[in-house]
Design brief:
four-stranded antiparallel sheet; three-stranded antiparallel sheet; 188 residues; alpha+beta; single chain; Immunoglobulin-like
C-alpha cells in the first residue's frame, strides 16, 4: 500500500494540510536555495528596543520583551550569523513587521521548516524560480539541475545520473565483449 503513487486528490490534500499548518504559524517565511526570510507581525506601537531577537548559528529566539517568544527553536541546518540580520519595518496599515534574514551555510539545501519543532513543508515540491536558477553561472546551474534530477530519481527508487552512466558504460563493454560472462559482475 505504501508504494502506491499518491493520487492528485492525495497531493491536493497534502498541499492543503501543509498550507493550513504554515498559515497557522505566528510568522510567515520564504526561502531561496541560499537564504531564508521570516516575517513576524507585531503591534505598531512597538520599537526595536521592545523586541528580543537573538540569532545564533543553530537557533533563534524572536518576540516581544517580557512575553513568550513568537519564534523560538533550533534550526534544521546551521546559518551564518555574520550575514544574518533583522529589521523592524512599518506597513502602510500601521502594523510593524520584524523581518529576519537568515543566511544558510549550505547554499544547496532547502529547509523543511524554520525551526525543528514547526510543521514541515514538502521540500520535494519546491520549484525554484527559473529566474533564480538562470542567475547561476552555467557550471553551478547544471550542478543544481543534476542534484534536483538525482533527488527526484532517488525518491522514485530509480538510478541517479551517475548510476545510469555506469550502467551504459557496462552495457557498451558487454556488447563489445560478448565472450565474457558478466552475470556475477558487481557495479560499484
Amino acid at each position: 500500500m505504501a508504494d502506491k503513487e499518491p493520487t492528485a486528490a492525495d497531493e491536493a490534500a497534502a498541499r492543503a494540510k501543509e498550507k493550513a499548518e504554515q498559515d497557522a504559524l505566528p510568522y510567515k517565511w520564504t526561502q531561496t536555495i541560499g537564504d531564508l526570510d521570516v516575517a513576524i507581525t507585531v503591534p505598531g506601537n512597538l520599537k526595536a528596543r521592545d523586541l528580543v531577537v537573538d540569532i545564533k548559528k543553530t537557533s533563534i529566539t524572536a518576540g516581544i520583551k517580557g512575553q513568550e517568544p513568537i519564534l523560538k527553536g533550533t534550526f534544521p541546518h546551521p546559518i551564518r550569523t555574520d550575514d544574518s540580520t533583522w529589521t523592524l519595518t512599518t506597513a502602510p496599515d500601521g502594523n510593524k513587521t520584524i523581518e529576519i534574514h537568515l543566511d544558510k551555510v549550505n547554499k544547496m539545501e532547502w529547509w523543511a521548516h524554520v525551526v525543528t519543532d514547526a510543521p514541515k513543508i514538502d521540500v520535494t515540491k519546491i520549484v525554484p524560480e527559473t529566474s533564480k536558477l538562470s542567475d547561476l553561472d552555467g557550471e553551478t546551474r547544471s550542478m543544481v539541475e543534476k542534484m534536483m534530477y538525482d533527488q527526484r530519481q532517488k525518491e522514485m527508487g530509480l538510478p541517479t545520473s551517475d548510476e545510469q552512466k555506469k550502467m551504459e558504460i557496462l552495457k557498451k563493454f558487454q556488447e563489445q565483449h560478448p565472450e565474457m560472462d558478466f552475470s556475477k559482475a558487481k557495479i560499484n
